[in-house]
Inverse folding.
């Protein structure tokens, strides 16, 4: 693959392996930029990037904002409270108004699955999905893959366990599509109500036994319990979740010695992950954050029509 | 009143076991035994002549939301679709839970409707599922059934009393089968596609629990409960088994449920968001089997118009429902082309079966019956263009579909209500 063809990045599911690799290679080049003393490049000078965050986010919004700034774009942040959406304007009208202000890229975070897919065909501007409901979070999956590649040198053949709230997780879905496309053995684990068997149809192994999930794992990706998306009937309590599925020190000790710990954040210390485990040298949680910047620079650059990045 | 002779058509009148090529005579708004002198002649050679089609599940939106649809536009849609009688659902604003609203609907229909409009009344006040609506008074005002359609009475005791009470007035009870706790905030069928799309699932069991409930209540009360728009295989199986032991239970299916599956939601097109949701291919096949063996008695559209701007939103927040009156017959004739149903079997589900359920003196071509007649070309090929719809709404997933078979002439009370140009 020589050229990036897409105007939008809506999800991982529709990407080819070649496209995923192209993005990851481009991110490699942008990671080097972050190591320079002058971290800014002129690639998107004169372009306007809008962070349209209809659902609260700090990490992802900051990461996208910084990525766009480092590419020299003009960046505007719009959050749900500040937008006209609270005054009853539809998402379509909000987006068309932003386009009328000559926005070149609209990065959208929305609680409704499919919101970016709804906007993309209506707009000339690029639409980047920064998380849509429980559907996809493509840049998170790309930065996770980037981190795994950096640390393990490969993805194919690795045993990767995603543990936690799969049903409501866009991170899980994007990771599932990406990792299975690149040949990893993906295991999904957690309570049966949050990890339904239907996910086996996506080419994953599903288990509700934590020891079984961790035994052969090369990578453990922990997901936060999404309180905000859940109904109360799905599991008894956070305490019981921690007892049954939390990555505590005992479970950590039984992992393969080189198993790597990942988490998309925000972490809940003492809930899904023991505090010391989160901070140990096999945890790459903060490196994921750093890599996220490089991945998002690559995505913004390519979807804005940039090409020919050499790694 | 003018007279008509419909010549050389294949007359299918399942109520009278008629399926033969012959002429049909209309005089004075009634089906006649012989031709009158000054009759206009319609040549129906190669066409099907049936009792006027009946759709027992239509949302006309008037009063209250005549920006979505009105009695005038909704009935024009019906006429174009070949329907001579429709049943108007009570979830208007105000709800049809009082005699004033029923009187209004009947009066507006008398003024502007081009087909017969039979109102359904609410089971409970404001469709809230808390207190019974004045069912006896509604019957006197002219309702042909009661239903909280769009909503479902969750309180089993209240539902039992509603059925028991309606029985006194010879009123069938129709139910939109949905357990709210189980369906929760689901927006599409719970399964592979909801998992893939990250959309909240509306599991089939949320319907099946209420179908089972209704079967038990129909049995206990020995009265008629009609399950509206079945969508799942297990619902069909429950109804089939109940009918075998003689329970007064009946069921309808909608063309979208027996034509489409949940996979079609994958582009997040809100014109594929309906309640109950589109389900799996296995469910679709079960609906076809249920239609074929008579478990499902009736086909209805659940014509549910919404404004375009209301549907042009995120999938989660879009209203449920699609318009269906104009595509219903063609999508159903597809079952005949696919040899799932014979033509008489299909016509039965549009005529005598709904008429029997609602005790309407309609649905037959017996001499002396109201001259409601539909002339159908079962093989005419056409493309549905929703922009040309008689509806105020445009929310159809069948826009640009190539269809086979359509109504050519719709005759209501001996008068041509619509004919294809």
């Amino acid at each position: 693959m020589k050229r990036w063809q897409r105007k939008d990045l809506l999800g991982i599911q529709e990407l080819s392996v070649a496209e995923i690799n192209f993005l990851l290679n481009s991110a490699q080049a942008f990671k080097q930029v972050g190591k320079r003393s002058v971290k800014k490049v002129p690639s998107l000078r004169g372009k306007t990037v809008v962070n349209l965050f209809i659902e609260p986010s700090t990490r992802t919004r900051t990461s996208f904002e910084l990525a766009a700034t480092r590419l020299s774009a003009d960046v505007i942040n719009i959050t749900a409270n500040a937008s006209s959406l609270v005054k009853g304007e539809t998402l379509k009208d909000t987006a068309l108004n932003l386009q009328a202000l000559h926005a070149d890229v609209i990065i959208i975070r929305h609680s409704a699955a499919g919101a970016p897919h709804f906007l993309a065909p209506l707009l000339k501007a690029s639409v980047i999905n920064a998380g849509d409901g429980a559907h996809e979070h493509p840049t998170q999956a790309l930065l996770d893959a980037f981190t795994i590649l950096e640390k393990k040198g490969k993805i194919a053949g690795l045993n990767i366990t995603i543990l936690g709230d799969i049903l409501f997780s866009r991170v899980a879905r994007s990771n599932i599509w990406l990792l299975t496309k690149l040949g990893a053995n993906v295991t999904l684990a957690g309570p049966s109500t949050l990890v339904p068997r239907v996910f086996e149809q996506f080419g994953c192994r599903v288990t509700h036994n934590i020891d079984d999930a961790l035994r052969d794992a090369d990578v453990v990706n922990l997901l936060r319990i999404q309180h905000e998306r859940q109904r109360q009937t799905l599991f008894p309590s956070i305490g019981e979740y921690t007892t049954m599925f939390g990555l505590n020190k005992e479970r950590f000790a039984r992992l393969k010695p080189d198993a790597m710990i990942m988490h998309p954040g925000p972490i809940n210390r003492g809930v899904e992950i023991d505090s010391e485990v989160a901070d140990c040298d096999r945890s790459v949680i903060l490196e994921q954050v750093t890599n996220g910047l490089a991945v998002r620079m690559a995505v913004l650059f390519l979807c804005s029509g940039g090409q020919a990045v050499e790694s | 009143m003018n007279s008509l002779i419909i010549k050389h058509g294949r007359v299918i009148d399942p109520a009278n076991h008629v399926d033969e090529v012959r002429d049909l005579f209309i005089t004075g708004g009634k089906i006649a035994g012989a031709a009158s002198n000054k009759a206009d002649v319609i040549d129906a050679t190669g066409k099907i002549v049936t009792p006027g089609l009946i759709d027992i599940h239509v949302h006309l939106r008037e009063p209250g939301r005549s920006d979505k649809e009105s009695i005038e536009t909704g009935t024009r849609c019906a006429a174009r679709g070949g329907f001579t009688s429709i049943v108007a659902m009570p979830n208007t604003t105000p709800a049809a839970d009082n005699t004033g609203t029923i009187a209004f609907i009947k009066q507006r229909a008398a003024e502007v409707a081009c087909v017969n409009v039979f109102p359904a009344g609410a089971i409970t006040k404001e469709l809230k599922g808390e207190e019974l609506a004045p069912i006896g008074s509604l019957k006197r005002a002219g309702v042909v059934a009661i239903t909280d359609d769009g909503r479902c009475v969750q309180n089993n005791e209240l539902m039992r009393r509603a059925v028991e009470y309606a029985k006194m007035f010879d009123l069938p009870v129709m139910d939109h089968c949905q357990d709210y706790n189980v369906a929760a905030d689901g927006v599409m069928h719970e399964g592979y596609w909801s998992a893939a799309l990250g959309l909240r699932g509306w599991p089939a069991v949320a319907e099946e629990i209420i179908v089972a409930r209704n079967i038990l209540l129909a049995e206990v009360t020995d009265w008629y409960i009609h399950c509206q728009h079945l969508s799942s295989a297990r619902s069909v199986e429950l109804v089939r088994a109940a009918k075998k032991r003689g329970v007064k239970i009946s069921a309808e299916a909608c063309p979208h449920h027996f034509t489409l599956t949940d996979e079609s939601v994958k582009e997040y097109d809100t014109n594929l968001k309906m309640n109950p949701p589109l389900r799996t291919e296995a469910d679709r096949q079960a609906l076809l089997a249920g239609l074929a063996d008579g478990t499902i008695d009736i086909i209805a559209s659940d014509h549910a118009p919404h404004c375009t701007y209301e549907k042009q939103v995120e999938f989660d927040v879009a209203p449920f429902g699609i318009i269906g009156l104009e595509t219903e017959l063609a999508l159903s004739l597809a079952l005949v082309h696919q040899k799932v149903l014979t033509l008489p079997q299909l016509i039965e589900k549009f005529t005598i079966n709904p008429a029997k359920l609602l005790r309407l003196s309609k649905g037959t071509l017996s001499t002396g019956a109201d001259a409601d007649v539909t002339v159908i070309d079962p093989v005419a090929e056409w493309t549905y263009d929703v922009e040309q719809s008689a509806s105020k709404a445009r929310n159809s997933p069948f826009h640009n579909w190539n269809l086979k078979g359509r109504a050519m002439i719709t005759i209501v009370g001996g008068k041509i209500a619509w004919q294809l140009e």
Remarks:
- DSSP finds eleven helices and nine strands in chain A.
- The radius of gyration of chain A is 19 Å.
- Chain A touches chain B through 26 residues (CB under 8 Å).
- Chain A has a mean pLDDT of 93.
